[in-house]
Amino acid sequence: MSADTGWDEAAAAPNAVAAPDPAGFSHPDTLAVLAGRRIGGAELAPSLYPSTTFRIASLEEGRRMALDPAESHYYTRNGNPTVAAFEEAMAELEGAEASRAFASGMGAVSCVILGLCSAGDHIVAQRQLYSGTQFLLQAVCPRFGIDVTFVDGTEPGAFQAAVRPGRTMLVFAETPANPRLDLVDLEELGAISGPLTAVDATFAPPSITRPLDYGVDLSLHSATKGLGGHNDATLGVVSGSAELIASLWGFAILQGANAAPFDAMNGLRGLRTLGVRLERQSATAQRLAETLSDHPGVESVRYPGLASHPQHELAKRQMRMFGGLLAFDLVSGHEAGERFVEAVKLAQIATSLGGPETLVTHSASTTHAGLTPDELDAAGIGPGTIRVSVGLEHGDDVVADLLHAADKATA
Ligand SMILES: *Cc1c(COP(=O)(O)O)cnc(C)c1O
Asked: Is 225 in the pocket of ligand 1 (CB under 6 A)?
């Protein structure tokens, strides 16, 4: 009790009971449950701090706060307690010193690329990339005088060979990559010296792969997908050394793509179940991939957990589980693809991935509808390519639904 105001400080903070220390544990599934609990009190669920601004004790304190990348109680575009709890959880999960959350995966991708590179710099990126990242590198970077070389990310040594010593600022990779689940060898990527290395690991959250363990400098995620996992948070995150994250922060506060506290709260809530969700999705995806491989109407199935995946050995080395994403080609092409998505009953037709609902997309008539047959081919998309994001429904039902649709599409 403070005598002058009558304000009872003990009553204002009645719940300062320490959370378990995540530092004593190393399995990402355990960290996903324990991490990000330093901010707040004894509550188990994340707290929402919608406040855009916070009282400052003195002008001197305000000046310090304004310049501190780790400050979460100054102004929400710079930092926010709910967002900081999500960031702290992600840093612990990724084995990183620090993380910065963004308003979307593209917020994270654009901050890494435009925050680190200047006119005259050179980027090496792989050809197999999320379409937004691809457009940013191909159409926006040249406007700012940033040169980009695209390489085949599955070819050994390709990234290193394209590095221009003294000019290449960034090597940007994605694994597993859109849309055909191609993999990048993270050990090889982590061994590149000179430029910074960044990996978009959206398809492989930390329970599956932790890029920083391989010496990569920055790990990126669209947490809109599997990390958040419930289709209710548009969110991105970048993790790495405290120094690199602080330097990105300098651009991020000007870019203005800061994560909203509500999305960070949903993202943190989603993280708690990351391990079991990925286990269920991976188990169902493996069954589905094997069953579809035997279907006469299916030409080929791409899934890192299949022995037929050209990089299955690499997948076994760098993925704890093989994830919920798979792609397959129907033998009879475009019409069969359309018939397939029209025939599913349990699966839903929608973009995005990593949520509770099984989603299917026929790329050639939706996400990539504007491309010519040649462009589709270059993007690794066939006329009958279907992408599946396996959800949390029972595996028996998911497999039965998609098999039934494959029967109807190719009968
Ligand atoms: C979805 C996605 C993004 C972009 O994330 P948003 O949250 O939609 O901005 C980036 N990379 C990959 C691999 C994605 O799947």
From this structure: yes
